[in-house]
Amino acid sequence: MVGLPSGLQLETRTFAVSLAIAAYGASWDIVGIGLICHHHPLGLSVSNAYRLQMIQQTILVTGSSRGIGAAIKTQLEERGIRVIGHASRAHDDATIGADLTDPLAPQALWKDALARADGRIDAVINNAGLFSATALDTSDIDWLDGWEETLRINLTAAAQLSRFAVRHWLDRKHAGRLVHVASRAGHRGDSPAHWHYAAAKGGLLAMHKTIARAYASSGVLSFAITPGFVDTSMADDYLASRGGEGLLADIPLGRVATPNEIATMAVFCALDAPESMTGTTLDANGASYVR
Predict the structure, then answer these.
(1) Res 233: pLDDT
(2) Single pTM value for the model
(3) Are 99 and 88 in contact (CB under 8 A)?
(4) Which end of the chain has fewer surrounding CB within 10 Å, N or C?
C-alpha cells in the first residue's frame, strides 16, 4: 500500500510510474514495478519488496545564455529540472559551448549533453537563433553567406538535434518532447532583408508538424512557439531598423512580449502540456498576426 502526501499525482505506465511532485514543482520518473521507502522524506510508506529509483528529468536548452533561453533555463530549474545549457561559448560549468555554424557542432553538443545526463535526455528545447539582416542588393556571395549562416543555425542545427533526440527516444522506447522556438515570421514572412530568417522559421514549423505526426504513437511529442517581437537584443535591433517605437502601432497589445512570457510557454510545452497537444503551434505576438 502506498501512502502519498498531498500534491502528489501518480500516472501508471508499463514498468514505470511518473511522479509529478506538485508541492515541490519537480518532475521525476519512478522506475520499477513497485516502490520502496520506509522513511522517505516525502512520506512514502511502501513495502520493501520492491525498489524505488527516482530519476530527475533532464532537458537540453540551446541558446540558454541570454534572452528567452536564459528565462527558460531559470524557469525549468525552479521546477527542479536538471538543465543542460548551450551557448556559442561555454561561460560556466553548466553550459556546453558549441558554434552551431559548424556542421559538426550539433552532434558534438548532443554527445556531450548525453554524457552529462548519464545517458538520458527527456526533452530538447530548440531555442538558439540568429536574426541578422542581409540586404537584397548586397553582393551575391554576401547574400548567400547570410542565407546559409541563418539557415544553418535556425533550421539545420535544430533539425540535427531533433533527429538525435528522436532516435534516442525511439531506440530506448522512452517518451520525449521537443519544443521549437520559431517565429511569427514563419507564418507571415518578414522584412525584405530577412528572407532567410522567415524561410528558416517556416521550415522549422514544417519539421515540427512532421515529427509530431510521425512519432506521436511512440510517445515522442513536438510543440512549437511562434513569438512576434520579444524584448531581447535581437528585437531591439530590428525595432530600431524599422522605425523604433512607431512599429508598436502594429501590435494591438501595445507592447512586445517579454522573455519570461515565452519561457512560460516553453516550460508548459516541455513539462505540462497534455499529450493531445502534440503538433500544436502556440502564437505569442500581441494579436499582431491572428491565424
Answers:
(1) 64
(2) 0.81
(3) yes
(4) N
In this prediction, residue 242 has a pLDDT band, given cuts at 50, 70 and 90, of low
CATH of 57-284, picked from 3.40.960.10, 3.40.50.720, 3.40.50.970, 2.50.20.10, is 3.40.50.720
Active site residues: 197
Q: Which residue has the cell 512599429?
A: 247
Asked if residue 166 has pLDDT above 90, the reply is yes
Q: How confident is the model at residue 232 (pLDDT cuts 50, 70, 90)?
A: confident
Write the pLDDT tens digit of every residue in 114-127: 999 999 999 999 99
The domains of the chain are located at 8-55, 57-284
Q: What is the pLDDT of residue 252?
A: 94
The pLDDT tens digits for 102-117 are: 999 999 999 999 999 9
Per-residue b or e along 117-139, where b marks 16 or more CB atoms closer than 10 Å to that residue's CB: beebbbbbbbbbbbbebbeeeee
